[in-house]
Amino acid sequence: MINEFHSLLSLVGAERPLVVLLDGLDELSEECGPDLSWISTPLPPNVHFILSATTDSPCSHTLQQSTRTIVLSLPPLSLDDIMPALEAKLRADQRRLQEQQCQLLVQACLSCPCPLYLEAAYSESLLWTSFSPQVNLSLPASLKGLYLGLLARLERNLGRQLVRRAASLISISRWGVTQEELLNLLAKDGKVLQEVTSTHPSSSSSQPRVPYVLWARLKRDLGHHLTEVRTDGTWVYRWTHSELSRVCIDLYLNTSDSRVAVHADYADYYREKSQYAHIFQPLAWTLDDEEDGGQKAKSYRFNLRKLNGLPYHLVHSGQILPFLSECIFNYEFLLHKAWGLSILDIEEDLKKAVLPDK
After folding, report:
1. At 90, is the secondary structure helix, strand, or coil?
2. How many CB atoms lie within 10 A of CB 29?
3. Which residues, other chains included, contact 69 with Cβ-Cβ below 8 Å and sequence gap of 6+?
4. CB 3.0–4.6 Å: which of 37, 268, 328, 341 could bond 345 by disulfide?
């Protein structure tokens, strides 16, 4: 793939130069790590790369050690940067702030002059009204403080256990969680169900569920902090910025046992354990397609969520023996994974067995 990549780049001519922008190299999947050998070879004369990574990431250190890379550090935002950005956002949303509110927002952005803080602080200001008492308005001077305030507000409005569990599931997921997975995993947390049934008695049934309206409200209140992306052939929800994930893990999953427990819940979900017996999780779904001439041919839709997620969560929950017996030495699992994905994905599973931290 690397050779093919560079052979394609060599086709770029001077009449149409190419600029490749790769944002957030430090967000590459953990299997890749800081290995940037696929872009470190000399580039063709008409090709340019613009790469970004956080300052203290392994990717950033790798780039700084390269003699062919020009490294620029983004300086803190100045007042001349902050004011136009806020004014543009206010115009786009057709909003105005009271003078004292505007001063509070600007001073907060100056106290933590980074673009992500500005984005988060402005989102908080969307909750302000013209009649909001000034004494009730405040913005923490750090991004972590803003995120903690957001989570505290969600807990007050929707319930601590619901927010704790949903944030944990999103933070500990592999590349994101589907809506169906989230609702089913929420319903298997006893504390969540106890909290929900105390406020929504109609939700109690033979198969207790978390009302969809609660998830809809949580999704709405999270706003741009939650994003929907496509992976494994479906749509999943994940945090827009990894910093919120770190804050949630520090707040709700601050022990290794708590993280292992959530990974184990994910693994049980894909393994159709007793508490998830009503959920069908095959390795693939078989479809009958009618071909020309009336002949019927079978096609398969592979359950990529299970093929990718089961080994990942078994390893991260410390269940190495089930990982070996149900994935690595399971013929049906290996056949479907090689068929639906590739041999390379099986090799990555083998690496997980040797290097569990990966």
Report:
1. helix
2. 10
3. 51, 63
4. 341
pLDDT in tens, 291-346: 656 667 778 899 999 999 999 999 999 999 999 999 999 999 999 999 999 998 99
Indicate the pairing of strand 296-302 with strand 284-290.
Answer: antiparallel
3-class secondary-structure state, position 177: strand
Q: How far apart are CA 191 and CA 186, in angstroms?
A: 10
Q: Which residue has the tokens 């300052």?
A: 55
Q: What angle do CA 315, 323, 355 make, to 5 degrees?
A: 45
| Of 92, 123, 93, the residue nearest 105 (C-alpha) | 123
- The segments of the chain whose pLDDT lies below 70 read 29-34, 40, 67, 202-207, 274-277, 289-295, 355-358
Which residue spans within the chain are E strands per DSSP?
A: 18-22, 47-51, 226-231, 234-239, 284-290, 296-302
Half-sphere exposure of 78 (CA within 13 A, CB side): 3
Confidence (pLDDT) at 31 = 58
Tokens matching residue 154:
């969600």
Helix, strand, coil shares of the chain, percent, nearest 5, are 55, 10, 35
The pLDDT value recorded for residue 350 is 86
Residue entry with tokens 């090709």: 47
- What interhelical angle do 212-222 and 143-158 show, nearest 10? 150
Residue 70 DSSP class: -
CA distances from 153 to 108, 124, 140 (A): 19, 11, 14
Q: How far apart are CA 250 and CA 230, in angstroms?
A: 27
The pair of structure tokens assigned to 342 is 């590739």
Which residue carries 């003078």 as its tokens? Answer: 99
In terms of Cα–Cα distance, which of 227, 231, 264, 257 is closest to 245?
A: 227
Q: Angle of helix 115-125 relative to helix 79-93, nearest 10 degrees? A: 40
Name the token pair of 9: 């780049």
CA angle 295, 298, 273 (to 5 degrees): 155
